[in-house]
Amino acid sequence: MKLLAIDTATEACSAAICVDGEIVQRYRIAPREHSHIILPMIDELLAETGCSLTAMNAIAFGRGPGSFMGVRIAAGVTQGIAFAHDLPVVPVSTLAAIAQTAHVQTQAEKVLAAIDARMNEVYWGVYELSDAGLMQPDGEELVIPPGHLSAQHGSGWTAAGTGWSSYRDELEATIGKNAISAVVEDCFPTAAAIATLGMAGFEAGNEVTASQAVPVYLRDNVAKKSAA
Fold first, then answer.
1. Are residues 121 and 172 in the same domain?
2. Residue 205, by phi and psi: left (phi above 0), alpha (psi -120 to 50) or beta?
3. Between the chain's N and C termini, which has fewer beta carbons within 10 Å?
4. Cβ-Cβ contacts under 8 Å for 122 (sequence gap 6 or more)
């Protein structure tokens, strides 16, 4: 089983190839450079692993939410590769990838993932670890002002993502500071996490066609200009 994974939804840009469960990754924090470096990253991985795009069984990508342009880049690259090589696509939530990355980094089993969505809002998701070692959502993903969230039940939650560096005081006041055991503010999604979740999605039959590999913004008016 071979799977290519890419993510460009945040300040981090990464690509990974998973071959029979072994993951090789390229990763850089490179704001505004994603469109220039994602394809070279893929080429480097193909050379290192000795794989070709035609040998891939599927491609997984970070479908958002996240940066408007970043999510579009990932979707565009994914569509191009999938169309050219007739590959199925597995869309993976950026917030789920943050939660999965936080689990790998800290062994967290309960994660409150938040991305700074600008406009005094966060992209928000609540995740808990499954028996299979995969972060699964508990409720819907949201775009919401930090002060409008509900208090979180229980304790031992790990907070992860840029939303926590931008709105930590508001989030802790709303969620309940005692519910949070650790904060990982600089936790970005990785292609390795996309690959892990993408493999599970592919095995579960959650793949889509290239034309259905579209971004998920959460914010409906993300591309609209103010009437003023």
1. yes
2. left
3. C
4. 114, 115, 116, 143, 144, 145, 146, 163, 166, 167, 171
The torsion angles phi and psi of 185, rounded to 5 degrees, stand at -65, -35
- Please indicate, yes or no, whether residues 111 and 162 belong to a single structural domain of this protein: yes
What is the Cα–Cα distance from 199 to 212, expressed in whole angstroms?
A: 18
State percent of the chain over pLDDT 90: 92
Question: Do 134 and 82 share a structural domain?
Answer: no
pLDDT surpassing 90 at residue 90: yes
Residues 102 and 175 in one domain: yes
Asked if residue 108 and residue 49 are part of one domain, the reply reads no
Judge contact between 118 and 69, C-beta under 8 A: no
CATH number at residue 197: 3.30.420.40
pTM for this predicted structure = 0.94
Taking CA atoms, 50 is separated from 24, 44, 126, in Å, by: 12, 10, 38
Q: Does one domain contain both 126 and 149? A: yes
Average pLDDT, the chain: 94
Which residues lie below 8 Å from residue 159, measured CB to CB, with a gap of 6+? 111, 112, 114, 168, 171, 180, 182, 183, 184, 185
* Mean pLDDT confidence for 192-203: 98
Would you say residue 42 lies in a domain? yes
Q: What is the mean pLDDT of residues 55-70?
A: 97
Residue 11 within any structural domain of the chain: yes
